[in-house]
Specification:
With 170 residues, the protein is mostly helical. It has a domain at 79-110 and 117-169. The protein has seven helices and no strands. The protein has helices at 2-16, 18-32, 36-78, 80-87, 94-108, 119-128, 134-169. Helix 1 (2-16) crosses helix 2 (18-32), helix 4 (80-87) crosses helix 7 and helix 6 (119-128) runs antiparallel to helix 7 (134-169). The longest helix has 43 residues, at 36-78.
Length: 170
């Protein structure tokens, strides 16, 4: 808690009283003997400050667009089970499906306990059992998990591999 308070105080001083941070950095330079790492640290502190101020200014103008894009991304995520149900020849019940996905998103952010894997799958099975035929429930949960979770792992691994490969070539 103390570290968080110190960090917030530092950030506040960085924005509202940069001269105090400048004095603090000068004090560190005197105490450490002008080491190169202190100059690098100072450069990064001021770059962080400038980027934060620019982000704060730009964010105000772009907030509606960012909110719209975020809502579209979430809606695409929430419509995956409905698309799977349509593909399986069943009524998607859009409103119930989206409501169930919102509940699942809330459940998914809860910290898992040891042995708690499968909470999302069990929750989805329970929520969708109210309006999906029992014959389609198992395949729906499996396909939903493949589409949302495992595809992210595969795509993420591919991008991580490409990124590492690009760094190795430099």
């Amino acid at each position: 808690m103390l570290l968080l308070i110190l960090l917030l105080a530092f950030l506040w001083q960085l924005v509202s009283h940069p001269e105090r941070i400048s004095g603090f950095v000068a004090w560190i330079k005197r105490k450490t003997g002008n080491r190169p790492i202190v100059y690098s640290l100072e450069k990064e502190i001021w770059a962080f400050r400038d980027a934060g101020i620019q982000l704060a200014r730009e964010t105000v103008r772009r907030t509606p667009a960012m909110a719209a894009v975020t809502a579209m991304i979430w809606m695409c995520d929430f419509l995956v089970p409905s698309a799977l149900l349509i593909g399986m020849g069943s009524d998607p019940s859009f409103l119930l499906s989206i409501t169930s996905q919102i509940i699942l998103a809330i459940i998914a952010i809860l910290p898992l306990t040891p042995g708690g894997s499968g909470v999302a799958e069990l929750s989805m099975t329970f929520l969708y059992s109210k309006f999906v035929p029992p014959l389609l429930l198992g395949p729906l949960v499996i396909l939903w998990r493949l589409a949302t979770y495992f595809s992210n792992i595969v795509v993420g691994a591919a991008f991580a591999g490409a990124s590492i490969n690009g760094m190795m070539k430099r």
